Amino acid sequence: MTPQDPHDLVRDHTIYSCVMGSRAFGLATDASDTDRRGVYLAPTPLFWHFEKPPTHVDGPAEEQFSWELERFCELALRANPNILECLHSPLVEHITDTGRELLSLREAFLSRRAHETFVRYAAGQRKKLETDVRTHGAPRWKHAMHLLRLLVSCRDLLRTGKLTIDVGPDRESLLAVKRGEVPWPEVDRRMTRLAAEAQEAATHTPLPAEPDHARVEDFLIRTRRASALETQPDH
């Protein structure tokens, strides 16, 4: 098997794809883009070449981004917020049997590490918003809305052990932030409160200290082995 075009890997070997962004979060408006995210399984024989398959691919469609399965699992085990949310999208567009097994592992990826990664990501985004306020007198309101959403998601994950990304009844209050109808000092206070609530929830969260590495690795090894048996290399 010769190396494949990256876009062909996405077209031919995607095991899971979903819609993310505002549409998945329940915050879409008529002007919202459709952000697509996916996971592809590069055939095992491709890894036998000096040139390895890409760990991620941008495209082929607009607003589409995909990860190779192993890279996706690595990031999920590290509690990367974007990756964990991808696993919990309510808008699944394509899924194979391997993709269904990946989704069955959602809880295996969750751990107390989520507190650190979500909060660290939120802190970086908050600094950017504060810079905007100092420089331009106002933040990028859409980014402020999504940061509030992320902090709520983090707090509730730590409280319940389950990740829910649809904002539900918070939709209108968040969209008011996006429209710039909530003063920045009030938005800033909400962020501070949510960060504190997440910190408090972390002290008694039902989440395990570490993700289930062994369970995820077993899935990856079985999947790679099955791919090797299905696909014979060129001679």
Domains, number: 2
Kindly report how far apart the N and C termini lie.
8 Å
Q: What strand line-up does the widest sheet have?
A: 3-4-2-1-5
Low-confidence stretches: none
Compute the CA-based radius of gyration: 20 Å
Based on secondary structure, the structural category is alpha+beta
**Average pLDDT rating:** 94
Tell me about the biggest sheet? 5 strands, mixed
How much helical structure, as a percent, in the residues? 40-55%
**Principal-axes shape call:** globular
CATH topology of the largest domain: Beta Polymerase, domain 2
The total strand number stands at 5
| CATH class value of the largest domain | Alpha Beta
Order of helices and strands: HEHEEEHHEHHHHHHH
Strand content: 5-15%
CATH architecture label of the largest domain: 2-Layer Sandwich
Number of helices: 11
Topology:
Elements: H1 6-13, E1 14-20, H2 22-25, E2 35-40, E3 56-58, E4 64-68, H3 69-77, H4 81-87, E5 92-95, H5 97-104, H6 106-109, H7 113-136, H8 141-160, H9 171-178, H10 184-202, H11 213-230
Parallel strand pairs: 2-4
Antiparallel strand pairs: 1-2, 1-5, 3-4
Structure description:
- With 235 residues, the protein is of the alpha+beta class.
- The protein has 2 domains: 6-109 and 211-230, Beta Polymerase, domain 2 (2-Layer Sandwich), CATH 3.30.460; 113-202.
- The protein is built from 11 helices and 5 strands, in the order H-E-H-E-E-E-H-H-E-H-H-H-H-H-H-H.
- It has helices spanning 6-13, 22-25, 69-77, 81-87, 97-104, 106-109, 113-136, 141-160, 171-178, 184-202, 213-230, and strands at 14-20, 35-40, 56-58, 64-68, 92-95.
- The protein has a 5-stranded mixed sheet with strand order 3-4-2-1-5.
- Helix 7 (113-136) runs antiparallel to helix 8 (141-160), helix 8 (141-160) packs antiparallel against helix 9 (171-178) and helix 8 packs parallel to helix 10.
